[in-house]
Every structure is written in C-alpha cells, then in structure tokens.
Amino acid sequence: MGPSEHICEEYWSHHERPLDLIVVPSMSVDSEELAKVKAASCYEERQLFTLLLLRNPHLRLAYCSSTPIDESIVNYYLSLLPSHLSDDGLEVPHRERLFMLSPNDPTLVPLCEKLAQSPNIIDEIKTILRPSCQSSLICFTGTDGERKLALDLNVPLLASPPDMDRWGSKSGSREIFQEAGIPLAMGIDLTHSIKDLCQRIHDMMAKRQNNILKKLVVKLDMGFSGNGNAVLDLEPLYTKKGDLPTMEDIEAHLPNMEFASKFENWGAFSKKIERCGVIAEEWLEGRDVTSPSVQGVVVSSHRVDILSTHEQVLQGQVYKGCSFPANKDYR
C-alpha cells in the first residue's frame, strides 16, 4: 500500500488525527461537452460531502470552487455534523476549520487551471496546510492539470493516475467488461472514422441475419451524463425484402440519429467522432429499466472500499439526479 493509500484510509476512517485536505472538484473534461450541461457549475458542489469529514476535530479542509458557493448550502452540510467540545467544555464551530476558496470565474475552463492562474489562492492554500500534518488533494477528475496543481502545492493527489484515464471511458469500460467475462450489449469498439463506423454497423447488421438490428446508441468515448449519446434507428435502412443496406446508405442515414442533447447536431458530432472517438452499442429495451451507480475507493491492488450506491434518474439518456441507496435486490 502506497503513501497516498494510507492517507486515503485516514480521511475516510473515523481516526482523529491532524489532517489537511484540499478539495478541487475540477471538471477537466471536453469544454464543448460540458457546455451541454445545464448549470454545469453545480457539478462542483457534488463533492460537498467531504465537509462531513470535519467530524474529525483535528481536520482542516479547503474547498475550492469556480464561483462562491451559497453559504446556506455550506451551513446545511455543517448542520449534519455532531457537535464538538473543547477541553474546556466549549463548543468548537466546524466552520473555523473550513476554508471556502474561489477565483470567482464562471467560465468553463477547468478549475485546476483557474487556480493555477490565481497565485493569491495558491498562497492561501499553502498557509492553510500545516507542516506537521499529512495533507492531500482530492479532485473530481484526475488529469495532468490536477496532478500539476498537486505538485505545485507539494501534496499527494488522491485520484487515479492520468494515464489510467482511459479505463473510465466508454471504450475502456467495454474492454474491462470483456476481459472480466461480464455480459454486455453487442457493440462496436472505439473508432475515430465515420467510414469505419459505417463498416462496423454493416457487419453488425449482417451478423443478425433474420433477427434485424433495430437501433444503436452511439456514444462519444469521453462523453458524460448521457449528453454525448445519440440513438440511430436502423429499421428504415432495411428493404422490404429484409436486404441489408449498402455502406453508402448507412453513411447517408447517420445525420438522422437522435441526439440526447438538444445542443448537438450532426455537423458538430461528426467532427467529435474524429477528434474524440465513439463506440456504439445495441439499444436494449425492457419493461423495467434501472440505472444503478456505485462509488468506491481502490485502497490497494486487491481491495475496493464501497462508499455509496444510488439509482440514477434519467430523462431519456440524460442524467437529472439520483436517489440513495441503490435497489437492495442488487446492492
């Protein structure tokens, strides 16, 4: 177990040791995809659960956000914490160990970059960090930007290494499922070519023989919240005799795909196929459809600690919210 894994266990345990935590919920993702998300800045509030770590009276926490978070929201999380009394029997406010920091920049530039361009905030974080304490930076996405910020602050980064990022992509997830022998929808692995996509769609249709392939969902490889998805109805491509379409027919039909985001169109999406890559999967239909999610922390090479589960609430394919916990039948 590495040093960052020891720190991770310290934070999520109930140990009362002096610890310093910097939270940088940076959305370091494709800016065009992020622009599709309504109230994208609210994503930075998803890690406010870390405020509950202040139950450790010896922990100090610096929470960074692009714009200031409303104080009533902060106070709500703090109200969930148990009271802490000093040796003199006086209540010690949790707020005194919480530092809310913001460059007050609402643009879609990743927060880690905004902080890197805000030397006053960097200096303030350094003054918050106590030399005698273990400290680390926790983030939403672990890219080179977050790693550079951690290096600038000289603290460990509690995140997956950036070179492991592909395993969080659509294509990486399919590869993991295939290697683990987990059943998954029939599909097309990562491609950056429209011609190749058409060829693979044709091959999938040919494999189905008498059982026609009705729909595919095409997904940008690094899309999120469902906004990078599009449904392609294939039924209109079959002839009355059930003959397969030509490659030219498939390519001409691609602009008819139905995009999950109202801000998307074929002209922009086709360019993203070449830049970002896509996968495609058979559209599966059923009477009872659920979308569970689980969050965990890998603290060693053979151990995963489960933090939480929830049921995603979707509008079409787009994430709108969730309910806790996930269904007990498969939790």
Any key phrases for this structure?
331 residues, alpha/beta, five-stranded parallel beta sheet, five-stranded antiparallel beta sheet, 10 helices, 13 strands, elongated, disordered N terminus
Uncertain runs are 1-7
Following the backbone from N to C, one meets helices and strands in this order, namely: HEHEHEHHEHEHEHEEHEHEEEE
Give the amount of beta strand, in percent: 15-25%
Compute the number of strand runs.
13
Class from secondary-structure proportions: alpha/beta
The radius of gyration over CA amounts to 23 Å
The biggest beta sheet, please?
5 strands, parallel
What is the typical, i.e. mean, pLDDT? 87
Biggest sheet: strand arrangement: 3-2-1-4-5
* Helix count, DSSP H or I runs of 4 or more residues: 10
Oligomer, anyone?
single chain
Q: How would you characterize the overall build of this protein?
A:
This protein has 331 residues and is an alpha/beta fold. The chain is built from ten helices and 13 strands. The chain starts with a helix and ends in an 8-residue tail after the last strand. Mean pLDDT is 87; it is low at 1-7.
